[in-house]
Write a structure and sequence with these properties.
Length: 402
């Protein structure tokens, strides 16, 4: 340990695609790689498709720091609860995994990569089957904007179905105490770069500003939502469907009670404590402390709903942080490994996440037309964000165009 500063725990990042946590190894079949502007794609032909693309499905990667790791994305899609890629290919679908040179870059920039992938797919396609285009987490937002921009420019994207998989249409949530901690680490670090990246600022419902210490809607999010509105908000030509890893009955994570200790740290960053989000004004969500250089800070929120325990796809936020601190010699008291990352109401574009009533609404009890999607499905049980389940994947594949 350095004698002049606390250890650098910011070597981790919070992943938001099916690649998260992948440890299983499997053979990756042969593929063709496409270089694209600020990105690339891996193309896996469908069974029986010997030449050209015939029934293409474009799957865009999600949010993280750095270049897409399509090998991990493939394994995340293939080795979970359901072999998603293999099943698509078995049905004669050509699978195109879309990656980005920088996953944390602006959604608007990565949408240009998606548009280039769609154009190349059209150029190489044999036959007239409409495309399927979508993505996981941020990938669903990137492709949503790309298709809407095509239509605004009066260009034919030849897409019959758009899908999103636990994408934060109304915003995502990372506890602001955790965001603040990334900047409290006295080193430049990957986690802080990720939290301060253009994509994070565009997607997060509320963002902690490292320079002012204020918590609010990042200017980049306001600008992105305005850009999305300028292209019509959504593509209008394809059928729009989406799935959520969270439940639809308004039941979230019953074990995550508001205002409880989620994680306490000692030995390094001694006494640093994170609390689950509660309602109210001047609610303490984190106490941060470091020895060298000595500093402490209390992070509070006002007017927040109970986000951490809300219905939605979960992220191992506190487990990832605790595991990193433990490896560096800290002692940790981890009470809650997972918290909500993409609320169900956000993933199926039915309500905003600003109020308790909207965040915890019984989606099953709402008229389906309240969603901006044409059709959607929420998981029957709470599952990890972008977790590949047979329930969600089978529902998606049953809706693919002929």
């Amino acid at each position: 340990m350095s004698e002049t500063a606390e250890p650098n725990v910011g070597t981790f990042t919070l992943g938001a695609s099916p690649a998260l946590g992948t440890t299983v190894r499997a053979d990756i079949p042969e593929y063709q790689e496409w270089p694209l502007p600020n990105g690339f794609a891996w193309v896996f032909p469908g069974e029986g498709n010997s030449s050209g693309l015939r029934r293409p499905v474009i799957l865009a990667d999600g949010f993280n720091l750095g270049r897409s790791e399509l090998d991990k994305l493939y394994l995340g899609l293939e080795t979970g609860d359901f072999p998603f890629v293999s099943e698509l290919r078995r049905r004669g679908r050509d699978v195109i995994l879309l990656g980005f040179e920088e996953r944390s870059a602006s959604i608007l920039d990565n949408a240009e990569t998606a548009m280039a992938a769609i154009m190349r797919t059209i150029a190489e396609q044999v036959g007239d089957t409409r495309l399927v285009v979508g993505g996981f987490s941020m990938g669903g937002i990137v492709t949503r904007y790309a298709l809407a921009k095509f239509e605004r420019q009066r260009m034919d994207h030849r897409t019959g179905l758009y899908f999103s998989y636990d994408s934060p249409h109304r915003g995502a949530s990372i506890p602001v105490g955790v965001q603040a901690f990334s900047y409290f680490i006295p080193f430049p670090n990957d986690f802080a770069r990720q939290m301060n990246s253009p994509a994070a600022r565009q997607m997060l419902w509320r963002h902690y500003d490292k320079d002012t210490g204020k918590i609010g809607v990042a200017p980049e999010r306001t600008e992105f939502l305005a850009a999305l509105e300028r292209v019509g908000g959504w593509p209008q030509i394809p059928l729009k469907i989406g799935v959520a890893n969270g439940r639809a009955d308004g039941i979230g994570l019953p074990e995550v009670k508001p205002g409880e200790v989620a994680l306490r740290v000692d030995r390094i960053y001694p006494g640093t404590t994170f609390y689950t989000q509660a309602q109210g004004d001047d609610v303490t969500v984190a106490y941060l402390n470091r020895r060298l250089p000595q500093a402490d800070k209390t992070i509070t929120t006002s007017g927040f709903p109970e986000l951490d325990g809300a219905p939605g796809g979960t992220l191992h936020t506190y487990k990832i942080l605790a595991d990193t601190l433990r490896k560096l010699g800290g002692t940790v008291d981890l009470r809650h490994e997972d918290v909500c990352f993409v609320p169900s109401v956000s993933a199926v574009a039915v309500r905003d996440v600003e109020t308790q009533n909207d965040l915890y609404v019984n989606i099953d009890g709402l008229p389906p037309e309240e969603s901006e999607l044409d059709h959607f499905l929420c998981s029957t049980s709470t599952t990890p964000h972008t977790g590949i389940t047979e329930e969600l994947c089978a529902w998606l594949m049953d809706r693919l165009p002929d």
